[in-house]
Amino acid sequence: MQRNFPARFWQTLHDVLRWLRPGLNIKRWFGLVMFGITLLGLGVAVVLIDLYRTDSTNPIFLLILSYASLRFIPRLWRAIIFGGLGIWLVGYGIYQLNRSLLRPFIQPGADVVDQIQDFRRRERGPRIVTIGGGHGLSTLLRGLKTHTRNLTAVVTVADDGGSSGRLRESFGILPPGDIRNCLAALSNDEAMLTQLFQYRFSGSPDLDGHSFGNLFITALADITGTFEEAVVESGRVLSVNGRVLPSTLHNVKLVASMQLPHSIQEIRVEGESKIPETAGRVCRVWLEPDNASAFPPVLHAILTADVIVIGPGSLYTSILPNLLVHDLLAALKASRAIKIYVCNIATQPGETDSFTCYDHVHALESHIGEDLFDVILCNDNYDGSIGASQWVRADEKTLSDARTYTTDLVDNAHPWRHDSVKLAQTVMNIFDERTGPLA
After folding, report:
1. Smallest Cα–Cα separation from 97: which of 16, 24, 8, 11?
2. The whole model's pTM is what?
């Protein structure tokens, strides 16, 4: 037992000193506490000195005071002993107090200091705005939330298929599907709450195909009175790292002009879900009404961002519906942030068949104008099978563009998708290269 005491002592001392790591915002408050205790100690000392002077004839009191103040030890050593013991008790007390206070908010088995340090690091992270929709945007957010808490996800509200489309038609609300996916990706608790939020009902004709999260957001919209407030409250329930915002609050419809196979004839296709299902090539897409205004918090987020990431996601049905909101596009052009376009890894049947990276960029720029992007991020790993899709390759035209940045972005388990860790780290690397790492 005695042999273990030095080891326990140094381990405890190490645990206490870890609270003084840079970036935890602990030292300033620890110094304030020490200053307050010093003043308290001076007050007690003044009382003891007064008692000593007024009751100096009492031999028992003098004996007790002599031993309590260690007068038989040189003064310098007394100061070191009392000072060291005081600092130790204060530090150890604060350490245990914080453990008790933070225990309900710390994940089981996690280290308190490490979690606080990680929280502070992400709190100082860059302001990043992501624009898109679908699973691609969720993948990006899942990776970025480990680097920064200053995240804003801007998602399209043109979805009219599946559960979102049915709720949109029945209740007249904006489609919650893409917003639900982003909230789930940004959640601190993807183990249980996110699974619940993403759960889809089956069997009942009325509920079949609906996800719990879509119904939850719909119910909150009815309770709070507004769709945007329902999204905010959903974020609180899931304890998300950042915000999820609709690009516009207007009920917009995505319309495409498509060229039929083996024909020069073009037809009009209405509805985001109908475009991939229609045989032919997409010539152009637009919103109706085309004068829908952007959600004001989205404009503020774009204009104050450090980095804006557009994509990955379905080119015509997830990315462009956001960029076709005119004042949102104007804010993008005015923003001084680093603007990164993330090209898809695989083509999307019925939408971008046989497209290269250059084709993706060209299609975007033909709708929104040139020179919006500072960086065009493309995958250069083409190993693995991607089923009926094709690799979106960085062709010669893309590689000749000075904005192009290529690297391995493939999820090895699902080669047709981006790896969230690789993608987020690449975005942060680009930001650091352009601006230097944040202090």
Report:
1. 16
2. 0.77
